[in-house]
Amino acid sequence: MHSGLILSRTKDEGITIKVPPSDTETIVHVTTLSCTHSRARLRIAAPHNTSIIRDEILKSSKEGDAA
Question: Which residues are in coiled coils (predicted)?
Answer without folding.
Answer: none
